[in-house]
Amino acid sequence: MDSSIDEAAAQPGGAGRTPPATPLPAPDPAMPAATEPAGEAAPGTAPSPATAPAPVPATGGAGEERSAVAPASLSPSRASDFMQCPLLYRFRVIDRLPEKPSEAATRGTLVHAVLERLFDAPAGERTAPRAKALIPGQWDRLRESRPEVTELFADDPEGERLAGWLAEAERLVERWFSLEDPTRLEPAERELFVEAELESGLRLRGIIDRVDVAPTGEVRIVDYKTGKAPRPEYAEGALFQMKFYALVVWRLKRVVPRRLQLVYLGSGDVLTYDPVLADLERVERKLHALWEAIEQATRSGDWRPRPTKLCGWCDHQAHCPEFGGTPPPYPLPVTAPGAGTV
């Protein structure tokens, strides 16, 4: 399957040709460029007015007025948030509490942008030097679109930390060339926004890094990770996001992706999984159960913290009871258990 997917690059017309399979839906032209789909916006940002539920005024801290919204859809990252810690999900989705940018996450955004833009060049010009040369310009664009990232190096007047940070981004980009050959790839889609509504009414959304379509019509979903590959016992958790995307593609086009591929630039590993329909049905059942729990917590206002080792990296310790903090007043209406039932 790998060879048939990769051979798509050798076909005349490349990405501009019509693939044998029904093409995946094009990104919604109304969607803003973002790392999270509208309605599941990145922490601390406002949702798209065109798709977000009616906001409820709330105070986000330091006297700042923010907009609280009831959950309306589910993305892989927000699903992972709820499974990690329901209170974290509340802080990010309902309270919209601001979070400081991190060097690791910002570097990941930068590297993703470089790998996406590299495919704008003709196949023969997709080289490591060209990719690394894209980094300064993409960093400038990132600072323009997200001015808060400049805070990362506010205490670095000589630029030494920034230089090291950019050098690490270069190493990650260069490592990608040892894992995949972009001269033999013509992605059918890059940074593809996908959305599907299940029969239950649950809306699933996400942004797929890359979709490859083989001449035979087989679909491969690819995601870049700038961290290290997880240990084998944690591989299932890493694949959850990919199975989520595969479910959305299946619900949209009734096509089960042939392969799911995670490319770990931090460790130089490639994790692949070939899903079957039963995998996607299991994921759908899991997401329905997860959404029921989210809806129940939304109605009751009962969002329990779930302490783990990841708490040390959380921006919301000042609001978390586990650290002696107090959550902000719950901004949504609360329904008492059993209310409205006979």
CATH topology title of the largest domain: Lambda Exonuclease, Chain A
| Assembly status | single chain
Number of domains: 2
Number of alpha- plus pi-helical segments = 9
* Uncertain stretches: 7-23, 25-65
Q: Which structural class should the secondary elements be placed in?
A: alpha+beta
Fraction in helix: 25-40%
* Lateral arrangement of strands in the main beta sheet: 3-4-5-6-7
Shape: globular
Largest sheet: 5 strands, mixed
Number of beta-strand segments: 7
Question: Could you give the distance between the termini?
Answer: 56 Å
N-to-C SSE string, H for helix and E for strand: HEEHHHHHHEEEHEEH
Radius of gyration: 21 Å
Average residue pLDDT: 84
CATH architecture of the largest domain: Alpha-Beta Complex
Strand-residue fraction?
5-15%
The CATH class assignment of the largest domain is Alpha Beta
Summary keywords:
342 residues; alpha+beta; Lambda Exonuclease, Chain A; 2 domains; 7 strands; globular
Structure description:
Helix content is 35%, strand content 13%. The chain has 9 helices and 7 strands; from the N terminus they run αββααααααβββαββα. A hairpin with a 4-residue loop joins β6 and β7. The termini are far apart. Mean pLDDT is 84; it is low at 7-23 and 25-65. InterPro entries: PDDEXK-like_dom_sf (IPR011604), PDDEXK_AddAB-type (IPR038726), Restrct_endonuc-II-like (IPR011335). Residues 73-321 form the PD-(D/E)XK endonuclease-like domain. Residues 1-77 are annotated as: Disordered.
